[in-house]
Specification:
Structural class: mainly beta
Largest sheet: 9 strands, mixed
Radius of gyration: 48 Å
Strand order of the largest sheet: 3-2-5-8-9-11-12-15-16
Strand content: 25-35%
Helix content: under 10%
C-alpha cells in the first residue's frame, strides 16, 4: 500500500518539473558558467546580479552580460553547440538568435540555434564550435562568422584583435564600422592568422556633387598639320620600326626608341677631281662593280674568258686640288671647344646639323629636308644639337623639328638656344 502511494505521488509530481523548459540543461537559451580562477559577475535579463568566485558554477538563461576580472579564467558553454574559455580582463554579452536556427531534427538531443556573442573588451579567448553557425562581434567593429572549428582571439595594445584559426571551417571577417562604405569580407583558413586593424578612411566620393556639363565639347584640338607634314608622315610609315646603327653596338634595348636611317645629303662644296688611269689587269670586287669606272685611256682590248691581257704601264695623272667656291676661311680641324666639349665620336652627322649620340635619341628625316629629333623621357641627361643657325640643348621628353637649313621650326618641351661659334664648320667639312 505504501509503495502504491509513493508511485502515485511521483507520477503526479513529474509534470511540475517539466513546466519550465528553460530549466533543461540543453535549452537553447541556457548557458553554463564555470569559474576556474578569480571571479565573474553575471547580469541576466530580468534577473538579479550574481557574482561567482573561483570553483563556483552556475547557469543562466536568455540575454546575459558577463564581467570577468583581470587574472580570472572562466569557461562558458552551451551544451552540444559551442564553448568559450576566457582569460580576464574581459567584458562580453551573448544571446540566442531564434531566426537562424539550423536544427535538422526536432528530436535532436542538443540545439543548434545560432549564438551572437559580443566582446566589448578582450584579453585572451579560445572559442570552439561543434554545431551550428554563430556570430562574434569583436572590438573595432569587426564581425566574425564561425562554424565548426577552433579559434583563438587575443586583444592587442596597438590594435583591436589578433585572430588565429587553429582548425575547422574557414572564418569570414567583415568590417561594419561604416555601412555607407562597405568593404569586401576577409576569409581566414585553418592554420592562418590575421591582425584586425582599423581600416583607413577612404576619401569621400564627391562625384554626385559635381556640376553637370552645360554642353558637350570635343577634348582634342583641331588638326594643324600642313600638307607637306602630312606627306612626310605618310612617307615615313613602314620605316619607323627599322633600327639603325647604335653607338653602343649592342642594338636597341627594350623600351628605347628606334632610329630611322637618315638620308645622305650633299654639302654646298663643289669638288672637281681629274680621273686617274687604272690598269686593265686589276680585279674588281663585287662592291666596285656598282661604282662607275673611270675612263680608260689606252688601247682597246677584247676581254675573253680564256685570254690573258698584257699588263700595260700605268699612266698616272696627278689629281687636281678640290676647288671650293665661296667657302669661308675656316679651320678644318675638329675643336672640342666649338662642340660643347664633345668628341667627334660623340656626334651624329645629320645634314648641316650635328646631334649628340645617345640610345635615347631618335632622328626622323623627311623628304622635305626637315628632321625631327625625339629625346626619350628615360634619358638621364640633356641632348645637344649643333646647327649653322644656332645650338640647342633639349631636355628629356622634348621633341624638336628643324628645317633643312638647321633652323628650329617648332619644339615641344623644355630647351635652351645659344649662338653658333664663329667659323665653325659642319662635320662633313672636317678633315
Amino acid at each position: 500500500m505504501l509503495k502504491s502511494v509513493l508511485w502515485l505521488s511521483l507520477a503526479c509530481a513529474t509534470p511540475s518539473f517539466a513546466q519550465d523548459a528553460s530549466d533543461s540543461p540543453t535549452h537553447p537559451e541556457r548557458a553554463r558558467v564555470e569559474v576556474h580562477k578569480g571571479r565573474c559577475v553575471l547580469l541576466a535579463e530580468g534577473k538579479v546580479e550574481r557574482t561567482l568566485r573561483s570553483g563556483a558554477t552556475g547557469d543562466t538563461a536568455g540575454r546575459t552580460h558577463a564581467e570577468i576580472a583581470a587574472g580570472s579564467e572562466v569557461r562558458l558553454s552551451w551544451p552540444g553547440r559551442a564553448s568559450v574559455y576566457v582569460w580576464g580582463p574581459a567584458s562580453l554579452q551573448w544571446s540566442t538568435d531564434p531566426t537562424t536556427s539550423t536544427t535538422d531534427d526536432a528530436t535532436s538531443t542538443f540545439s543548434s540555434e545560432s549564438l551572437t556573442i559580443q566582446f566589448f573588451d578582450i584579453a585572451w579567448c579560445d572559442f570552439e564550435v561543434r554545431r551550428g553557425q554563430h556570430r562574434l562581434r569583436l572590438p573595432g567593429h569587426w564581425r566574425c562568422d564561425v562554424e565548426n572549428g577552433a579559434t583563438h582571439f587575443r586583444g592587442l595594445p596597438q590594435g583591436p584583435v589578433e585572430v588565429r584559426h587553429h582548425a575547422g571551417s574557414p572564418l569570414t571577417l567583415v568590417w561594419e564600422g561604416d555601412l555607407s562604405k562597405p568593404r569586401p569580407p576577409v576569409t581566414v583558413y585553418s592554420g592562418s592568422s590575421v591582425r584586425l586593424d582599423m581600416p583607413t578612411t577612404s576619401p569621400d566620393d564627391r562625384s554626385s556633387k559635381a556640376p553637370s556639363w552645360g554642353q558637350s565639347q570635343w577634348p582634342w584640338r583641331e588638326q594643324a598639320d600642313t600638307d607637306d607634314e602630312i606627306r612626310d608622315r605618310v612617307a615615313l610609315q613602314g620605316r619607323t620600326n627599322q633600327p639603325g646603327s647604335w653607338p653602343s653596338g649592342e642594338g636597341p634595348q627594350r623600351g628605347t626608341m628606334a632610329r630611322v636611317p637618315e638620308f645622305t645629303e650633299r654639302t654646298g662644296v663643289k669638288v672637281d677631281v681629274q680621273p686617274e688611269t687604272m690598269r686593265i689587269g686589276d680585279t674588281q670586287s663585287p662592291q666596285s662593280q656598282s661604282t662607275p669606272m673611270s675612263p680608260y685611256t689606252g688601247r682597246t682590248a677584247v676581254q675573253n674568258p680564256g685570254t690573258t691581257l698584257p699588263e700595260l704601264p700605268p699612266t698616272r695623272v696627278q689629281p687636281k686640288q678640290p676647288k671650293v667656291q665661296d667657302a669661308p676661311a675656316v679651320s678644318r680641324t675638329f675643336l672640342t671647344d666649338q662642340w660643347g666639349g664633345l668628341g667627334r665620336h660623340q656626334l651624329e652627322s645629320s645634314g648641316v646639323m650635328a646631334i649628340e649620340r645617345s640610345q635615347h635619341v631618335e632622328i626622323r628625316l623627311f623628304s622635305s629636308g626637315r628632321r625631327k629629333v625625339f629625346v626619350a623621357s628615360e634619358c638621364s641627361t640633356s641632348i645637344r644639337c649643333f646647327g649653322p643657325n644656332g645650338d640647342y640643348t633639349l631636355e628629356p621628353g622634348t621633341v624638336a623639328v628643324f628645317e633643312k637649313d638647321g633652323s628650329l621650326k617648332s619644339a615641344y618641351g623644355d630647351y635652351e638656344a645659344s649662338e653658333t661659334p664663329t667659323n665653325r664648320p659642319t662635320l662633313g667639312e672636317l678633315n
